[in-house]
Design a protein that fits this description.
The structure holds three protein chains of three kinds. Chain B is mostly helical. Helices cover 73% and strands 0% of the residues of chain B. Classes of the chains: A alpha/beta, B mainly alpha, C alpha/beta. The structure holds adenosine-5'-triphosphate (2 copies), iron/sulfur cluster (2 copies) and magnesium ion (2 copies). Chain B: Keywords: Cell membrane, Membrane, Transmembrane, Transmembrane helix, Transport.
């Protein structure tokens, strides 16, 4: 748990907004706006935040599935954005992704065996004769019977499809996996199966996960550290225990207090946020959260709070820090 | 644990149905489409084997028996030089159907590759290819065709070779439409997560295009190709009328209908133009029925 | 207590090419006035279809209500004419649908749609209705209500749309509000806003709420009474505190165990083995049998019935009461 495997510095991704007949760029959606963090070997970093705050975009920009606007992504000491296409392609097996939607992320016209095995062949990790055995092994590891190998995705339930997606990523022996809401589309009873599977695999193979989710209770269960995003920026990042016990940023506090607890006898003080999330195309000046913050001060409207370590590896971006 | 085993054992016994098998099952439920399919098979069999079992040769003249009305020995009568109309209709079927099919194969080949490359790479490659498509779409083909026909006549090109030229021309005429359709589909498929997954796996472009993208457009390729066969048969007959299509003495359904040059033939020798006309009509209709059925059956949202 | 809605032995089936789906199979429920009933269960267990059966919104074909009674304020809704049902829909009973975008008409403004509902059911003129709609939008916490009333659905965010739906459902002061997963598509902070809002509205207007969800946290927060469904059947029902303190059915237990909880640390999550059964191929006995860790011989053959086990707690499982133990 020491070696840094991934380091992201000042990552930005702006999507152009086009309009009019000539598709002129009239503005930018600041989907990811200056995000920095590090991920160590065998560690899980949870990434939480409201829908549209840029979690998926962060994950995909790190893997260079979409191009960045600015910033730096170092994976095992190599700058992902300085590699040629072919070099990147060769690096891909080391960094994988599990998608949120187990339906659209599997090619409906390929069998499970092809889905899991094709990249093995493509990267020379197996040949036509050995691939079947390997695929069977990975499927079994993910809790799927190996005789599913000739079946098509439409014959599986959501949970099973998600396992196929996991098997596809694992087959390549990756070191780092972006889990983009891998359980959000699943039923509670299936969710826990997948979460347990991911935990087990991590213990076995020392994977590093970037675990994206909006379900705080799942993130709390699976992560070692947790980052909270709001409107494209990280507002707080700390050790799991620390952030759940001692949240500093008002948004984190609101988020934590809003999670419904399945215990009807427990009544809590709840912070209800006013208003809606501002548009990421036109984020508020100063602190992006000031339009909804219950503690906002005059300075917040003008000055963007710095994202800094307040000790204990607890990063936070708020003018209130330390108080 | 025992129960889990028994469930798995049951799954093992279940038949595995691929997407194509499912599509076939759905198609079989569609009565109209199946009718279209049966008619089409009948027409194909008739064209392929009909001329072989016919006692007449389609080119044998019988000047003693000119424009004879239908009779027992000539079920559809004879034409102006005494050839058996039934034999010629069946033989013409070979020509018309193969013109349709080959032209569409050419069109599918060019159209899907251009469409796929254009949609996949986007940017400048897309812009260039789509301008070429535009040029093809607004190119004045009729004058060109008239020219080609004139040249072919001048050089006395044998009718059998002219067929290939016609196939080629029709194929060239119709690929731009198809490539637009494929490009549109690829553009929307490219946004799907499984393509991002393919990218994340580090697959090569070739594999992504030919294994991931194009197979998912097969259903629309098949549907438009089917409908295009009908279009090609009609185009061929229209071209024949201008003297650009397949030229006599090689018969095609188109040029047989177009052999009617005056009201007299039209009125008094209907057996010379009605049968090929009916053939065109029911073949095109059958293909359209089948195409519509395929469209429903191949619905990519694989409902289970 | 004063019963508002009683569903007795409701059966709603779908006739598909592959076979009959018994989406709702012999379900009985009741909701008292001013009470919140939560229905929980896995995706596809028939929660939405139960709700839609109440409003007689089942697409026919392929669906059909095959039996049972739905008694609302003493009248059997299944015996009313279509016109009478339409009179009740949106007036006495309103529904918030699972997917807000599909239930708002994209070509009319939000205001148009609310005003129309008010004019139709409350016989107010346009001016009063407009005033009332603005009030309703303000009540659900939509800022700039006067402007939003002229906005089209696509111009609103998901949370605003859902709130507009709630405003629309609440304007006519329904006696029963059916909310089908009103917050599933939303974020926790917006979800908290909306749950808070529904609770306030209920206190103010004494509306009964039938809340469908699969989030046990939401259940604990909102419900007074809970019904757990599995594969088209009710497997357990009880008062909310009783259910969470003393869950009985192995499926309910599994659900409660498998959800990670933010205030409790666990080494490993419990998970119910296996999958939801295929609706065309349900087991003969207890539908939960293939996944149940406490299954017995009898469970394979005999379907358990819903029985009272004390405290108003009902459960359908051979482990409790009757068939087996006594
Ligand atoms: N291809 C794109 N073009 C333009 N804008 C985009 C694109 N992809 C994402 N965005 C915008 O970027 C922002 C962040 O999107 P992203 O998908 O990363 O959010 P998210 O945090 O993953 O949300 P969710 O929880 O809903 O998945 C959103 O406002 C979205 O509208
Ligand atoms: N139009 C339909 N045709 C056939 N079957 C249907 C139809 N609508 C629903 N069903 C079936 O009825 C069953 C119950 O569906 P329902 O929508 O009530 O589930 P649900 O409990 O609301 O699930 P979710 O949590 O996913 O909303 C499902 O098995 C579904 O497949
Ligand atoms: S900087 Fe100000 S507005 Fe922003 S979160 Fe902190 S207190 Fe609130
Ligand atoms: S009846 Fe039997 S199988 Fe069903 S839940 Fe109870 S113990 Fe399990
Ligand atoms: Mg996302
Ligand atoms: Mg539902």
């Amino acid at each position: 748990m020491n070696e840094v495997i991934l380091s992201v510095k000042n990552l930005k991704k702006y999507f152009p907004i086009r309009s009019g007949v000539f598709q002129k760029v009239v503005g930018h959606v600041k989907a990811v706006d200056d995000v920095s963090f590090e991920l160590r070997k065998g560690e899980t970093l949870g990434l939480v935040g409201e829908s549209g705050c840029g979690k998926s975009t962060t994950g995909r920009t790190i893997l260079r599935l979409i191009e960045k606007t600015e910033g730096e992504v170092m994976f095992e000491g190599k700058d992902v954005y300085k590699l040629s296409r072919e070099e990147l392609r060769k690096l891909r097996p080391n960094m994988q992704i599990i998608f949120q939607d187990p339906y659209s992320s599997l090619n409906p016209r390929m069998t499970v065996g092809e889905i899991v095995g094709e990249a093995l062949i493509e990267h020379g990790m197996a040949n036509k004769n050995t691939v079947k055995a390997k695929v069977e092994e990975v499927l079994e590891m993910c809790g799927l019977s190996s005789y599913y190998i000739k079946r098509y995705p439409h014959e599986f339930s959501g949970g099973q499809r998600q396992r196929i997606g996991i098997a596809r990523a694992l087959a390549l022996n990756p070191k780092f996996i972006v889990c983009d809401e891998p359980v959000s589309a699943l039923d509670v009873s299936i969710q826990s199966q997948i979460v347990n599977l991911l935990c087990e695999l991590q213990q076995k193979f020392n994977f590093s996960y970037l675990f994206i989710s909006h379900d705080l209770s799942v993130v709390k269960h699976i992560s070692h550290r947790v980052g909270v995003m709001y409107l494209g920026s990280l507002v707080e990042l700390a050790d799991k225990k620390e952030i759940f016990k001692n949240p500093i940023h008002p948004y984190t506090k609101a988020l934590l207090s809003a999670v419904p607890i399945p215990d009807p006898t427990l009544k809590r003080e709840r912070i209800i946020l006013e208003g809606d999330i501002p548009s990421p195309a036109n984020p508020p000046k100063g602190c992006k959260f000031h339009t909804r913050c219950p503690y906002k001060m005059d300075i917040c409207k003008e000055v963007t709070p710095e994202y800094k370590d307040i000790g204990n590896n607890h990063f936070v971006a708020c003018h209130l820090d330390g108080r | 644990m025992q129960t889990v085993r028994s469930v798995e054992a049951k799954i093992r016994e279940e038949k595995i149905l691929g997407p194509w098998q499912l599509a076939w099952i759905r198609l079989k439920r569609n009565k109209l489409a199946m009718l279209g399919l049966y008619i089409l098979i009948f027409m194909v069999l008739l064209s392929v084997f009909g001329p072989m079992i016919s006692p007449y040769n389609m080119e044998t003249l019988d000047l003693s028996n000119i424009s004879a009305p239908p009779s027992l020995s000539h079920p559809l009568g004879t034409d102006e030089v005494g050839r058996d109309v039934l034999t010629r209709v069946m033989y013409a079927g070979r020509i018309s159907l193969s013109v349709g099919i080959v032209a569409v194969l050419i069109s599918v080949l060019i159209g899907s590759i251009v469409g796929a490359i254009s949609g996949y790479y986007g940017g400048i490659i897309d812009a260039v290819l789509m301008r070429i498509v535009d040029i093809f779409m607004c190119f004045p083909f009729l004058p060109l065709l008239l020219m080609v026909a004139a040249v072919m006549s001048d050089y006395k090109i044998h009718p059998n070779y002219r067929i290939y030229v016609v196939m080629f021309i029709i194929g060239i005429l119709s690929w731009p439409g198809l490539s637009r359709i494929i490009r549109g589909q690829i553009l929307s498929l490219r946004e799907q997560e499984f393509i991002q997954a393919a990218e994340a796996l580090g697959l090569r472009d070739r594999r992504k295009i030919f294994r991931h993208l194009l197979p998912n457009t097969f259903s629309s390729i098949i549907v438009s190709a089917t409908l295009e066969v009908a279009g090609a048969i009609l185009t061929e007959s229209a071209l024949s009328y201008l003297g650009l299509g397949v030229t006599p003495p090689t018969p095609s359904w188109g040029n047989m209908v177009n052999a009617v040059t005056d009201a007299y033939v039209f009125q008094f020798y209907p057996w010379r133009w009605v049968p090929p006309g009916i053939c065109i009509f029911i073949t095109v209709m059958a293909i359209n029925l089948l195409g519509d059925g395929l469209r429903d059956a191949l619905d990519p949202k694989l409902k289970h | 207590m004063d019963e508002l809605l009683i569903i007795k032995n409701l059966k709603t089936y779908f006739y598909t090419d592959e076979g009959v789906v018994k989406a709702v199979d012999d379900v009985s429920l009741r909701i008292n006035r001013g009470q919140t009933l939560c229905i929980v269960g896995e995706s596809g267990c028939g929660k939405s279809i139960t709700a839609m059966s109440i409003l007689r919104l089942i697409p026919d074909p392929p669906g059909k209500i095959e039996g049972g009674e739905i008694i609302f304020e003493g009248k059997d809704l299944l015996k009313l004419s279509d016109d009478e049902v339409r009179e009740i829909r949106g007036n006495k009973i309103s529904m918030i649908f699972q997917e807000p975008m599909t239930s708002l008409n994209p070509v009319f403004t939000i205001g148009n749609q609310i005003i129309e509902a008010i004019m139709l059911h409350q016989k107010l003129d346009k001016k009063e209705a407009t005033k009332k709609s603005v009030e309703a939008l303000k009540l659900v916490g939509i800022p700039r209500a006067e402007e939003i009333i002229n906005a089209y659905p696509h111009e609103l965010s998901g949370g605003m749309r859902q709130r507009a739906m709630i405003a629309m459902a609440m304007v006519c002061n329904p006696t029963l509000l059916i909310a089908d997963e009103p917050t599933t598509a939303l974020d926790v902070t917006i979800q908290a806003q909306i749950l808070d809002l529904m609770r306030k509205l209920k206190e103010e207007t004494k509306t009964s709420i039938m809340l469908i969800t699969h989030d046990l946290g939401v259940v604990a927060e909102m419900a007074e009474y809970v019904t757990v469904m599995y594969a088209g059947k009710v497997v357990e029902e009880a008062d909310v505190i009783e259910l969470f303190k003393n869950p009985k059915h192995p499926y309910t237990l599994g659900l409660l165990e498998s959800k990670p909880q933010i205030h409790i640390d666990k080494e490993k999550l419990y998970s119910i083995p296996g999958q939801v059964p295929n609706p065309f191929n349900l087991p003969k006995g207890c539908y939960f049998f293939p996944r149940c860790e406490r299954a017995m011989e009898i469970c394979k053959e005999v379907m358990p019935t819903l029985k009272e086990v004390g405290n108003g707690h009902k459960v359908a499982c051979h482990l409790y009461g009757g068939d087996n133990n006594e």
